Amino acid sequence: MMATDTSIAPEGETSPSGGKPLMSLKGIRKTFGSHQALRGVDLDIFAGECVGLIGDNAAGKSTLSKIIAGTHIPDDGHMMLRDEPVRFQSPADARARHIEMVYQDLSLCDHIDVVGNLFLGREMTKGPFLDQDQMIKRAEEMLARLEIRIPRLTAKVEKLSGGQRQAIAIARAASFEPDILIMDEPTSALAVAEVEAVLGLINRVKERGVGVILVTHRMQDLFRVCDRIAVMYEGTKVAERRTQDTNLEELVDLIVGKGGH
Amino acid sequence: MMATDTSIAPEGETSPSGGKPLMSLKGIRKTFGSHQALRGVDLDIFAGECVGLIGDNAAGKSTLSKIIAGTHIPDDGHMMLRDEPVRFQSPADARARHIEMVYQDLSLCDHIDVVGNLFLGREMTKGPFLDQDQMIKRAEEMLARLEIRIPRLTAKVEKLSGGQRQAIAIARAASFEPDILIMDEPTSALAVAEVEAVLGLINRVKERGVGVILVTHRMQDLFRVCDRIAVMYEGTKVAERRTQDTNLEELVDLIVGKGGH
Amino acid sequence: MSTTYTERVAGSALRDFVTDFAQVLSIATFFIICLVFFGTMSDVFLTPANLLNIVRQAAPILVVAVAMTMVITTAGIDLSVGSQVAFINALAAITISAGVPWPVAIVLMLAAGAMIGGVQGWFVSYQGIPAFIVTLAGLSIYRGAALLLTEGYSIPIRDADGFLWLGRGTLLGIPVPALIAVLVVIAGFVVMWRTPYGRQIIACGSNLEAARRVGMPARRVVNSVYVLTGVASALAALLLAARLGSGSSNAAQGFELQVIAGVVLGGTSLMGGKTSMIGTVLGTLTIAVIGNGLILMHVSPFFTQIVTGVIILLAIWMNTRLFTGTWKIGKGASNG
Amino acid sequence: MSTTYTERVAGSALRDFVTDFAQVLSIATFFIICLVFFGTMSDVFLTPANLLNIVRQAAPILVVAVAMTMVITTAGIDLSVGSQVAFINALAAITISAGVPWPVAIVLMLAAGAMIGGVQGWFVSYQGIPAFIVTLAGLSIYRGAALLLTEGYSIPIRDADGFLWLGRGTLLGIPVPALIAVLVVIAGFVVMWRTPYGRQIIACGSNLEAARRVGMPARRVVNSVYVLTGVASALAALLLAARLGSGSSNAAQGFELQVIAGVVLGGTSLMGGKTSMIGTVLGTLTIAVIGNGLILMHVSPFFTQIVTGVIILLAIWMNTRLFTGTWKIGKGASNG
Amino acid sequence: QDDGKTFALVQINQQALFFNEMNRGAQEAADELGVELVIFNANNEAFEQNSAIETYITQGVDGIAVVAIDVNGIMPAVEQADAAGIPVVAIDAILPEGPQAAQIGVDNAQAGADLASFIGENMESEEMSLGVVGALNSYIQNVRRDGFVDNLPEGVSVVNTVDGQNIQDVALNASENLLTANPGMNAIYGTGEPALMGAIAAVTSQGRTEDISIYGWDLTEQVIQGIDDGYVKAVVQQDPAQMGAEAIRSLNTLADGGEVESEISVPVTIVTQDNVDDFRSLFE
Ligand SMILES: Nc1ncnc2c1ncn2[C@@H]1O[C@H](COP(=O)(O)OP(=O)(O)OP(=O)(O)O)[C@@H](O)[C@H]1O
Ligand SMILES: Nc1ncnc2c1ncn2[C@@H]1O[C@H](COP(=O)(O)OP(=O)(O)OP(=O)(O)O)[C@@H](O)[C@H]1O
Ligand SMILES: O[C@@H]1[C@H](O)[C@H](O)CO[C@H]1O
Ligand SMILES: [Mg+2]
Ligand SMILES: [Mg+2]
């Protein structure tokens, strides 16, 4: 049933640093009802690199990402963070370990304003009270870095455009010094300039030593930021390539199962 | 305040057919609270052509699309459908005129199964009852055409992956012989093969004489299916180009306001 | 390099079934436990006479619960049903006492119920006022109207044996109210399960804007479910009047909470979209069975309220743990 | 080719304000209309004595409404508050009658309230049982417990003048219950408006999963709001006991609906996330004012319930039309 | 004729004939005396009664009559009224020691006991097993239940007590279950109008009029029918209209500076087939 790519080069070789992985997943499985979302997946993430996670729709990319972020608890498998076994019971556990995620569904609170969503779960306070002024000031910086324009930071996010909402989710995850940053299709609703800004952001955080996982269907972006690309198929990881060793056609073939050349 | 591109060639010239437009918008305005989402937009859609609608995030693309689909009622402006003035009070009015839309937020009912969502508002019946068998049969065909795999058609859509959900929204809008098909970022969550399927679908329906409006941030797709491209900026239409007369760089410049060369 | 591509194997369909129907399975299990428990504790409980008794008593609640399921499925609520029952029940007694032939009175009452419900539904759907507020106002208004009509008298219904038969008679050995309730339940079940109208109700509760966008007459649908609670309340009022042989403003106090309790216990979600007509029936009957069983067991009336509450709570708790699979030992036991 | 690029001009901020606060503005307007109307109809209405009267009478409801606002903001509900009030109110009378010094009794009662609320909250948040069912069971259980404690009689509180002062005394000319209610309201307002805890409550109601995903202790927060309704109910029970000088299992029947009505009238949404503490205060006071005004106007008791219901309904209707801008004539009047 | 006096009657609810009759009697007396009467309906909420009394005090009415829900809880309001110089009289429910000027009505405990001894005097067989349909949420009815049960004669056993909650249809269900639960039971005692109505509907609709005897409180048309048919044996009938009238007359006297008896008793009658004819006119 397991079908990981056995012919791929051993771990050390695909890693950019040759060192120990920041995070390491082994044999991750997850079943929903009768549906095997993940059928035993291994994945390493190294500090300062970006791993692209690609695959057909419903291949299990989001499920795997959520497991790393503590949102789902795997049915089976092991996770190691800096050589230490971890078992996240909730996203709070993962966040405490500096793992942040941009969710595909964004996970915003529609009834809370832009600032509030940016600082959700990490509100700035002055004494026992929210420090709204300070948060607004920082929020402006956070959004400016993503080149997104939001006229009224105290407007509820409910009414914002798709791209504006996505930018908020990205700014929230990226702004609090994560060690591991998981981005599940972060640029799907963004316009050209904003996509550039996000790709720039990824390259910047990589330089700071952050390990990034980028789930995306935009193949051309992979080659601009990723060091390594993992391909998923029907709940398994079927291949892993260094970006410099592969090309678009190969990846597309791998995704749809015409791989293995 | 109005800032449409006045130097552009007159209507007839950008139209592929040289005939009358299928639908024509004039001076469309829409304000939400203090925010001018649309500040007077003109747009024509001709039968058998695909108009690309692009622009920065929050430029007003979705708002304009929703007005055509009857979801928003414009504050001001006129709409003509086949030379006849129309004023939609609700999406039902637009649907009655064979205008279908794929919404950016998908507009699925999470508690209803896949088949039910595909046929939402157009259930097949046998006597007074839903004809579930018939619907399942047709649903399989609808989804197969988009190359999407959904194992259990009677599963609630709530739990499906992002791409699966988007495919359902597309299949729903495209399958009922629309005259005008509006697609608001329909491929944002789709994998490579599925995107191809949607582009193929657009070309197929164009051949049948459908007028398609495609809102997208994936510039490369525009050149594969669009005949004409309208660029929006801050609630106005700032430019309109025939696809064959423009290129990627020009479009990107137009979007961010460096246009007008 | 060669990679091995394998397709997923579909797991047991039973697991999907259990997941999809967890709430109904849970209330069904608990219902059966109740039957067994009370059957063991009391000789009388499982006698046909007593079981028919329970269904007859539950009939008015069941009838309204069916319509309430639809209202709650649209993410609405109708708090006014008890007051509507009191009002129509009083009006029916007055109408019949005034000499109007009872079949005509029945039709008039059902029409009055539809009208009352229609007005409330209009405020909810076309005016966008929260259903809770509209029907809370209704709760006050119709109870007041019942008071005003009867001035506190309970109005006897005489010389209308056909009418009283509705509440007290039997057909083929089965109490008429029970038969009527069963018919209403079947109709409600079929509507929700297999008709476009039922689909519209679910869609409106799941995502009202989506329902509107696909061209459904969303407002009309939302309006209509309140018409249904109105008609159902009128029917329940007729059953009660026929059973009591009188109409009184005192009838059906707290009725709304009993009805809603049955619906929610059955798994229909107050947040809309999630619905189960079978669940409603089981939920309503469970509450009726507990009430009946405790009396049969001679539990002191000072304890009945406590015991009823505790049983309901523990039941739903036990079953949540059983069917959502969170009872797995060790990891995965907590969901966060 | 040259294209003209212009930026949007920001419209009037007033429009945003009106849109953002439509519901509070609406209930505030209506509250003022009520004051003016009853002031005109009755000489006594606007006298300080009567106004203080109203606040004192509304105090127990206000106290619980503040906590209820938080519960409803999390998309929950607490139907058991009336029964909790009855239970604690009876317990308090018994405790004080038994010779426990009243300050100790107060602390014990508040702790008991916290415990009751905590248990209910645990079922809701950690066990995932719908709040409606849990607290409906609570409604039954605590009313039953109160009955059992008192055996249906009322228990007088004697020789505890300090305690009775809480319900009857004044401080600087203002009734003590009113002062307590004002303090609770201010605390509630500040918490919801400007503290991380208030933000967590809103987040849990708006999108529970999102709140969890950003690392908020979502379950603990949901649990905690029920602790607050428990404590608030205990406080209300003490105010009532002190005002009535007795504890009775009959106290606070239908209290839960009054509380929830005030909260919902004030614009807090039963679907969660949307909250307004000022709205709650205005909503609760509006209902109190209508009750008081109708008595002063000597409206026949047969009509009060009808009139109350109609006023509430028409008020909210008028205001919905006024503030949502749907009153614009002609096109745009309908939103679909 | 009009000397501008206003009296308030603070009522429990208006869903039973009893209270409405009381209101009618009070209104007739008020009309007779040329005073204004305002009635407040508390809908069974004890603290609403206090609120209403406070409001009437601020408004400065000339006298208040109250049918208390919570006899202890009403006292602060009564004391407040007294402090404001407004006379208060209590109807039906007996208030504890306090400044109220008069207690009008029935001794419910005594009347309950009287009905019990009536049963003792008229027992047809040695044994009677009896079920009680009560209203645990009504203080007055609890008093009636205890007064009755505590004084039952030899040979009568209470097999079961159920709670009808003072609501007819609840009482009906409870009565039906009572019948099912106790096949050997041969009598029912209903402590108030809704309870009695529920018991009657249960017994008639289950065809048990042959073997069940019904006792209870408060006449209605159905009860009279039951007496005629023979299965309702004896019912305590109060004279609520007179209670209301006495209350207003007393208040009027008090407001004029006069004095009234501190206990004004309005006697009850135990209605049986023998004297039922006297009461038929009430319901015409
Ligand atoms: N909570 C859930 N309950 C049931 N099934 C689920 C759940 N979450 C995911 N699934 C199923 O697991 C499979 C994998 O979903 P996942 O979201 O991981 O796909 P994905 O690779 O992210 O796809 P996409 O590219 O479309 O976003 C899908 O078939 C989906 O229906
Ligand atoms: N219902 C609404 N209420 C208030 N403001 C709205 C509403 N709908 C849209 N807006 C505002 O109108 C502007 C245009 O939004 P729109 O969704 O049309 O942008 P868009 O061009 O589709 O952007 P994107 O590419 O991000 O999807 C945004 O600033 C948005 O906040
Ligand atoms: O005293 C009253 C009446 O006697 C009537 O039975 C209704 O309820 C009781 O409280
Ligand atoms: Mg995904
Ligand atoms: Mg958009």
UniProtKB/TrEMBL annotation, chains A, B:
GO terms for molecular function: ATP binding; ATP hydrolysis activity. Residues 1-22 are annotated as: Disordered. Pfam families: ABC_tran. The keyword Coiled coil does not apply. Residues 23-259 form the ABC transporter domain. Keywords: ATP-binding, Hydrolase, Nucleotide-binding. Its EC number is 3.6.3.17. InterPro entries: AAA+_ATPase (IPR003593), ABC_carbohydrate_import_ATPase (IPR050107), ABC_transporter-like_ATP-bd (IPR003439), ABC_transporter-like_CS (IPR017871), P-loop_NTPase (IPR027417). This is Galactose/methyl galactoside import ATP-binding protein MglA. The gene is mglA_1.
TrEMBL record, chains C, D:
Keywords: Cell inner membrane, Cell membrane, Membrane, Transmembrane, Transmembrane helix, Transport. PANTHER family: ABC TRANSPORTER PERMEASE PROTEIN YPHD-RELATED (PTHR32196:SF21), ABC TRANSPORTER PERMEASE PROTEIN YPHD-RELATED-RELATED (PTHR32196). This is Ribose transport system permease protein RbsC. It comes from Roseivivax jejudonensis. The gene is rbsC_1. It comes from the Bacteria. Pfam families: BPD_transp_2 (PF02653). Its main location: membrane. Coiled coil: none annotated.
